[in-house]
Design brief:
alpha+beta; 11-stranded mixed beta sheet; 3 domains; 3-stranded mixed beta sheet; 313 residues
Length: 313
């Protein structure tokens, strides 16, 4: 069956994005994302071509050297998708603009401290990134994300045949129709579920979480707890909600929210906090409010905040 003119143009447009995304200097992620989600056919064409990328790269590496120095004889047949990929690679290489190389098909998205960002993936799944967060995505695995650091809320478009997976260190979280929050802590991870089900596989154990369930993994220890499902995404509105949370984890969350390092005195790390705190506003208003809530002293230390025990009255 011959490809229609519309489909041929779409394939070329998808191929153009594929070539750009493979360039190490590519930075137009917002434009790429907008094009990808503008129409389901865009994502379908793009990911189909991306899956063929590895096959073409392997073919180019294994071709006789003579083929790279003289033009091949072309048969008068309708061009295939693979032809268009190989032709674009050859043309770009001849022009000296871009060279096809075998590269990992992953890329990272980062937010600055204090910044929040929402990513919409090809299937409609949304990742809401907190500040100072890094996520790794994979062109060949559209139902996958790795949380390298920081925190994100995941709103999954469920697919029974292709479950969405989140990797956090050695842990794998698999959606079973879900909205859930994940934080990568310095010494482990924290999960809270607001909708659906999540299976967490870690330390040779499998735990299924339901709405209102939370899980903390630290130093190989799994601790289940109850969370308020309606408060799981409160951090997106500048409010941090806790139930018996160690100050060490609170300090990590606070640093992402306010966009500056928070240096916690070691003797406060295991102290626990239960309550809610707003983390937006000017420093001169925010610092005394947090001092009163946490029972600490907060002082400026360059661009950072230093948190120590409150002085004795």
């Amino acid at each position: 069956m011959r490809m229609s003119q519309t489909n041929r143009l779409l394939e070329r447009e998808a191929l153009g994005w594929l070539v750009l995304v493979n360039d190490p200097g590519f930075a137009a992620w917002d434009e790429w994302e907008a094009w990808l989600v503008a129409d389901p056919s865009h994502a379908e064409a793009y990911w189909r071509l991306a899956a063929e990328e590895a096959d073409v790269s392997q073919a180019l590496r294994s071709a006789p050297e003579s083929l790279t120095t003289r033009a091949p004889k072309l048969r008068r047949t309708a061009p295939t998708r693979r032809f268009w990929i190989a032709a674009s690679v050859a043309a770009a290489a001849i022009a000296g603009v871009w060279i096809w190389q075998e590269r990992p098909r992953t890329w990272q998205v980062e937010t600055a401290p204090g910044e929040q960002r929402t990513l919409t993936l090809a299937d409609g799944t949304r990742l809401h990134l907190d500040g100072a967060t890094q996520v790794t995505l994979d062109h060949s695995r559209p139902r996958y994300a790795a949380l390298d650091q920081g925190r994100f809320l995941v709103e999954v478009v469920h697919d029974d045949r292709h479950p969405f997976s989140v990797v956090v260190g050695d842990a794998v979280l698999t959606d079973l129709g879900t909205a859930f929050d994940v934080t990568r802590l310095e010494d482990g991870l924290r999960v809270a579920v607001s909708e659906g089900l999540v299976r967490v596989d870690v330390e040779q154990e499998a735990v299924t979480l339901r709405p209102g369930d939370g899980l903390v993994v630290r130093q190989g220890q799994l601790t289940r707890r109850v969370v308020a499902a309606s408060e799981v995404d409160a951090w997106r509105d500048g409010r941090l909600v806790y139930d018996n949370e160690p100050y060490a984890a609170v300090a990590e969350d606070l640093a992402r929210a306010i966009g500056r390092p928070v240096r916690l005195a070691p003797d406060l790390a295991d102290r626990r906090f239960t309550g809610s705190m707003g983390v937006r506003g000017p420093d001169e208003a925010l610092r005394p409010r947090l001092e009163a809530l946490l029972g600490v002293a907060i002082s400026a230390d360059g661009d950072a905040w230093r948190v120590t025990a409150a002085p004795e009255p």
